[in-house]
Amino acid sequence: MSVTIRALMGACALGALGTAALAETTITVATVNNGDMIRMQGLMDAFYEAHPDIKVEWVTLEENVLRQRVTQDVATKGGQFDVMTIGTYEVPIWGERGWLVSLDDLPESYDADDILPAIRGGLTVDDHLYAAPFYGESSMVMYRKDLMEAAGLEMPEAPTWDFIKEAAAAMTDKAGEVYGICLRGKAGWGENMAFLTAMSNSYGARWFDMDWKPQFDSEAWKATLTDYLDLMNNYGPPGASSNGFNENLALFQSGKCGMWIDATVAASFVTNPTDSTVADKVGFALAPDNGLGKRGNWLWAWNLGIPAGTQKEDAAKTFVEWATSKEYLALVAEKEGWANVPPGTRTSLYENPEYLEAAPFAQMTLDSINAADPQHPTVDEVPYVGVQFVAIPEFQGLGTAVGQQFSAALAGQVTAEQALQSAQMLTEREMMKAGYIK
Amino acid sequence: MARNVTNRRKAVVTVLAWLVGLAIFFPILWIFILSFKSEGDAIKTPFEVLGSAWTFESYATVQERSNYFRHFWNSVVISVGSTLIGLLIAIPAAWAMAFVPGKRTKDVLMWMLSTKMLPPVGVLVPIYLLFRNLGLLDTRLGLVIVLTLINLPIIVWMLYTYFKEIPGEILEAARMDGASLKNELIHVLTPMAVPGIASTLLLNIILAWNEAFWTLNLTAAKAAPLTAFIASYSSPEGLFYAKLSAASTMAIAPILIMGWFSQKQLVRGLTFGAVK
After folding, report:
1. Is the pLDDT of residue A438 over 90?
2. Enclosing domain of residue B190
3. Tell me, what DSSP letter sits at residue A33?
4. Average model confidence (pLDDT) for chain B?
5. Residues 83-142 of B with CB under 8 A from A
6. Are A57 and A29 in contact (CB under 8 A)?
């Protein structure tokens, strides 16, 4: 073979390689740092095998930083991300503004009807699905079975707030550093206000009436905040006004909490014998209620959405479809075991006996998710969507400002009445400024 | 008697200095300790943490999960690049202000400093849009430009303070010997100001290395430096202290080592002109 022919063949081969490289689409996925998302990054070989023409670059950020980054990017059409991990708070707002690509055209094999109705409801705007859920959670009661037994009580599957108060009193042993109840106290719309808004739903309270008038001057809110403060001041750990999820997790795992009402995702942490000293003593129950028809649990999901205007919509859709499919759940189960499958998104997962056996908290998680209705979150009618939040752009600022008032009340800096008055005033002012009320 | 009092005073001052130094250094020490603990142990009480087993587990996880060297290289390019460009602009500016001051030199200096008083978030959206239109989002060049502009007032101020201490007569003598402006700057002023320029350079590399607002907001996957690498290990829900500490240790180690070896120059530059 002559040198010329060899050179020509080499050039052809290089050209073919070049064409293949050109055909490759790289998408950038912005995501949060949680176990399920990180696990997916480790399982990408399966995706690349099925889709060799798509390459995924990850941008992993802390939740609040991520929220700011993706909001800024989608609002300015910055085009930095092709797939964004967004919460149930963002989806209705962004979907309504046309910032997200509709996912209505996902193939039949994706089986969108299999998505849990409560979760799907929160991701749908005007009958269009704007994001696919990757992982969902609610909140529930986690309690120490041994302490409950020692107190001579038995936790019902669906407790009331009165029972929680009674149990907290009976389990508290301040001298032994055991506190009857641990709840979020740190100020923030996703911190203490996630808990308190969900709790207020079960007390018949609401953020706004149908005319968007703030309702912090209602008896229901007064009862909510008073009971919360009583519980925390009498039976909670010291310094609770700066406690969030991680602080309470540390307290519970080290055996210092009798009960903890928080995200269902915590169940896998507190029952993990490597990290938890009380792993074999934990029981679960639905979030409490007051017999008014709504429980005090929230509903949250991390979802994958595609920003409108991305140049790589097809590749982005392919990735979203893969990452939120039933096949992905099966892949995680095969590689990492059923207990590590992202929970709270698909009905079929909760019909799988292998999953139910591997995750003893699965049924409670499902029941908690089903007990929340983001379209009708409160006892009385409201003009907004969202269980532990109000899906309007102003809520992030409002929720945090109100959360600061309630956190100050927990720290003893103001009374419950003063905190509610301030919350009412500042919310009225902001809603007036935003044009919701005149 | 007087000597006794002086010795006692010295001892008290030394102990105080050590205590303040340890208090400042303690968070870094604690990060370092936590980075060698398991996630379960990292959330225990301080005494339990110290008594628990040591492990490299977090470092292994961080290495496996992230591309440390890509972030590290981005940090090097961004911090060194912005500092060098800043120096190129600041040396002539500081020379002019120190040796040929005008009526408004003081005002200009104050105005430059006042730009540091604006909260960066106030100009985030305009800069983001500008970068989007210029195609500078998620590029190292974009970050070099932004960090140069942000640190320029500090560079000018530091160099100005240093140049002010150099007798103007030396430059005059050079001029009388026929040195051009360029030669005066390069061959006369710069060699005399090397310690000041070195400390300015070091301090600005540190400032640029640690800058977390713009580097997080203007980058995504390609140009993200070590600040973004650290941010990827924080989480409001879950156990992450040990991994976050390992990531932080890896991110600050290069700059800490550089600071350690150049502490003399740094202290000299920072305290220059403070005591006469």
Report:
1. no
2. 66-232
3. -
4. 90
5. 124-125, 128-129, 132, 137-138
6. yes
Given a cut of 50, is residue A18 above it in pLDDT? Answer: no
How is residue A285 annotated by DSSP?
A: E
Q: Is residue B195 part of a domain?
A: yes
3-state secondary structure of A295: strand
User: What's the pLDDT tens digit per position in A216-237?
Assistant: 999 999 999 999 999 999 999 9
DSSP class per residue in B2-25: HHHHHHHHHHHHHHHHHHHHHHHH
For B39, phi then psi, to 5°, come to -60, -40
Residue A19 has pLDDT above 50, yes or no: no
Dump pLDDT digits (tens) for B152-187.
999 999 999 889 888 888 888 888 888 888 888 888
* pLDDT tens-digit readout, A366-390: 988 988 888 899 999 999 999 999 9
Q: Does A77 touch chain B if contact means CB atoms closer than 8 Å? A: yes
Please tell me the pTM assigned to this model: 0.83
| Nearest-Cα residue of chain B relative to residue A277 | B40
Phi, psi dihedral angles at A190 (to 5 degrees):
-100, 5
List, in sequence order, the alpha helices (H) in A292-415. 313-323, 326-336, 353-358, 362-370, 395-410
Q: How close B118 comes to chain A (CA, Å)?
A: 20
CATH number at residue B127: 1.10.3720.10
Instruction: Identify each DSSP E strand in A76-145 by its residue range.
Output: 83-87, 124-125, 128-129, 132-144
Question: Is there a contact between B235 and A80 if contact means CB atoms under 8 Å apart?
Answer: no
- The chain B residue lying nearest A267, using CA atoms, is B238
Domains of chain A (ranges; CATH) run: 24-137+300-358 (3.40.190.10), 138-298+391-433 (3.40.190.10)
Q: What is the pLDDT of residue B276?
A: 43
Determine contact: B167 vs chain A, CB below 8 A. Answer: no
Domain count within chain B? 1
